Amino acid sequence: MSVRGAADAAMCDLATPWGWFAVGFSHELPRRGVLTRRLAGEELVVWRGADGSVAATSSTCPHLGAHLGRGSVDQDAIRCAFHGFTFDVDGRCIATGAGSVPPAGLAVRSWPVRERNGVLLVWHHPNSSPPSFEVPELDAVPMTRLSRNTTACFEFDGHPVATSENSVDLSHLAEVHRYSEIVMVHPFIADRTEASVSYSMTRPIGIPGDGRLAALRRATTQVRFDVRLFGLGVSLVEATIPRLGARTRQLVLATPVAPGRIEFRVALQVLHEGGRLRSIAERVAARIATHGFVHDVRQDVPIWASQRYISRPALAHGDGPIVPYRRWARQFLEHHG
Predict the structure, then answer these.
(1) Same domain, 243 and 117
(2) Residue 42: which domain range?
């Protein structure tokens, strides 16, 4: 079921979106490494060749049904551990363990793969249409000793159309996360398969429930969020704290693994463009920003897991640009050739 006609639908009843979806982080896949992952109800294996390139194919060897995730990487191809049948990045069988000529036309399904910004992305389209857009490589940012990478992965009931909607749902920022003084800086703008929006707010510095730093729990700071969406699977959120001259870069990655079920990955990097820390307070604030982002995601998870899709929501003033977001998002739930 697409979003059209879904007056009040469970998320599992919505169509699986098409686009680029994360199946892991680059650091999880060393050279000659193999990962088993799920995407849109199918199991696939992702491997890195000796030359560093990444490929993805279905997980079942068509010879006698062994799982290719138990295999090994031979140069830039994957070799089945059962009989040595070997498949290249396009899924074609190029060798057998016995040295005989492979059966004519023997192949496994392959998926387009990209490695962007430390993330392994696989293209999914129900009609097997080729990629119609790309996720860009982000501009490099000078690193300092404050910079750090934090990654996390959750799995729960939900749908990428709902998790991406959080980026434009301004009223939930106050109700769920206790932000205040929320102001739209730039309106929601949709450009084909990419969209963007910016807003600022005042947020607590501390993490609710953390009793170690009572003074920080009461303190607040102004933050600006600049959000870019690349389909429903990849979001970039850059949060700037003007008072400290610091910012975070957050990749938010929602992958449909089965109807109504998603893997939700986040990668966060704390950046400081000043070159040197000016005070201990800045280091403390940066650490809190890292933990605070993961804390905010954990607050959203139980809501996403029990949420239903209302096609004509009763919106109120201050809800944010949900209507234009849904018009833009609809394209990824409608499966044309």
Answers:
(1) no
(2) 18-124
Distance CA 52, CA 104 (A): 29
With respect to residue 327, please indicate whether it lies within any of the assigned structural domains: yes
Say how many C-beta atoms besides its own lie within 10 A of residue 174's C-beta: 14
Output the pTM of the full model: 0.90
Q: Are 178 and 193 in contact (CB under 8 A)?
A: no
Q: Looking at the structure, do residues 41 and 112 belong to the same domain, yes or no? A: yes
Q: Assess whether pLDDT exceeds 50 at residue 125.
A: yes
- Report the domain count for the chain: 2
pLDDT of residue 218: 62
* pLDDT tens-digit map of 235-280: 999 988 777 667 788 899 999 999 999 999 998 887 765 544 455 5
316: in domain:
yes
Same domain, yes or no, for 22 and 73? yes
Tokens of 255: 């992958």
CA atoms within 13 A on the CB side of 203: 27
Q: What mean pLDDT do residues 224-244 have? A: 91
Closest CA to 97 of 149, 61, 142, 148: 61
